Structure prediction request, 164 residues.
Amino acid sequence: MRHRRKIKHFNRDTKSRKALLRNLLRSLVEHGEVVTTEAKAKEIKRWADKLISKAQNDTLATRRQLHSFFGKRDIVNTLVDRVAPAMKDRKSGFSSISKIGTRRGDNADVVKLSLMEKSIYKLGLKAPKKYKPAEKKTTTLKGTSKKVAATKKTPKKTVKKAEK
Prediction:
């Protein structure tokens, strides 16, 4: 019996429904907001709160769990390294739903689901570099080292074949 087992099916089978939610959650983490229908947004909000609260505990085990869900390492790194630290003061309520209007084709209610901390998306998603690349050095005959200036590559000479 299915007592108290109500979930939204979105007129899809199980694999399609999970793929839909996973892709919408990827877009939410990547862009900071998603425009979708109200029913899908409510379901995504539920999942997003669980995943962000899990990402706040930055361990190898949680990274592996998130990677098994998302399947993309860059989304997991963004979630753990950028989104979760920005929301370290919050315990819940990581996202908000705001109504936009109705969709023209079928008059469905359209909403915007966005993360609460939007300032992390203004700078871009690439994390700042933590290291400086090492400078190239060459040694002279006496054993002293000097820094190499920008090396110029000489174009290869093309050899024309003689016509017979």
Observations:
- The helical segments are 14-31, 38-55, 60-70, 73-86.
- Strands lie at 33-37, 95-102, 109-115, 137-139, 145-147.
- Residues 14-121 form a domain with the 50s Ribosomal Protein L17; Chain: A, fold (CATH 3.90.1030.10).
- The chain has four helices and five strands.
